[in-house]
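ligand=guanosine-5'-diphosphate
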Amino acid sequence: LSSKLQDTFKKLKGKGKLTEKDIKEATREIKLALLEADVNFKVVKSFVKNINERALGADVLKSLTPGQQVIKIVNDELTSLMGGQPVKLTYSPKGMTVLMLVGLQGAGKTTTAGKLAAYIKKESKKVLLAACDVYRPAAIKQLQVIGKQVDAEVFADTEEKNPVVIAEKALKYAKEHFYDVVIFDTAGRLHIDEALMDELVQIKKSVTPDHIILNIDSMTGQEAVNVAETFNEKISLSGVILTKLDGDTRGGAALSVASVTGKPILFAGMGEKLTDLEIFYPDRMASRILGMGDVLTFIEKAQADFDEEKALELQEKIRKQTFTLEDFKQQLSQMKDMGSFKDILEMMPGAGKKALKGIDLDEKEFTRSEAIINSMTPEERNNPGIINANRRKRIAAGSGTRVQDVNKLLKGFEQSKKMMKQFSGLNNKKHGKFKFP
Ligand code: GDP
Ligand code: MG
């Protein structure tokens, strides 16, 4: 899968713009690659449809090639198909939490039972393992050995041949001994059959689990979908654990199982050791399926830079909106120093005579304006909205001017503010700074 996709993206790389034809070509190859990886065809179909829709309307980030943009979309879509965010194992608020592990023979149920016990014990909970596989030779012994390794007690009854009866006894024992969590290790078959499903339905009825968790070997491929679908139909799964992800797997199983059941993948088995259990991260799995770690890192960085740029732009805008009389005063004194500000403004690109219409930049007024602003309190300078009639009278008196002069200054300030906004708009469009002549 990975190398196939990589080839596809190499073809897209370096093109100026993503055309409809490009997307079609890319998604056709993605489709083939996923099918080759044994992802269920229904999953592939809806996946490709999503990619088509998203890629067509998408903006291409400045720093990415169109091909990289498609990779980002594919990666996001893979992540969301597998649940988006990691999902935590929850405990019953009523008291004891009952977990039931199901799956085909060799899927890793007994090993995972031990791994889960170790994981749950770390959360200071008392765990009981219940041995309900009476068919596989030495299955009970295997769980007892594992239980010893993780220091968890194992409930077993070697005399009893009916797994449903063992399950009932184990539940009773767990209640009497105040266990926080009990994990039922059940039997599997090489293939799904009626007898196995009936037995699991019986056990489910008698112990009413909080969680029924399907263990699935990530090497399973196409068959994974049928297994997950059947288990989900018959006993209604609450989640999935993907085992043997440490192997040389293509990862297609994760995608189809999550998509077909709509149930979260809780953990990934990462080896035979009982500590080899990891929380399942959909985004990491997506990267793994794509097999393009460094490209994805690059794309993430570009995205982060892009976000930062946006934040700075916003900051600048906010700054312009909160342009205060204090700023205005500074501007006025700068103007005084520069001489005829109007002449300078007229030379600036985008700021023709039209923009300056109605703004009186009489040199003599600068001094008067400064005096008026000096008579204002800091609060008034920062928030001119509060300057009512009374305040205007006081400011006029303090600066030796008339109320009309104060009004005129405030009007000039408002116009100046508007003008600044216009300029910042021009600035953004050109992606460049103004240059004074
Ligand atoms: P069960 O039949 O479903 O109970 O499966 P087991 O727990 O007996 O596991 C079958 C085999 O798979 C054993 O040899 C385990 O050591 C191995 N196994 C289980 N989980 C993992 C895993 O995450 N990684 C690897 N490499 N091997 C695993
Ligand atoms: Mg087993």
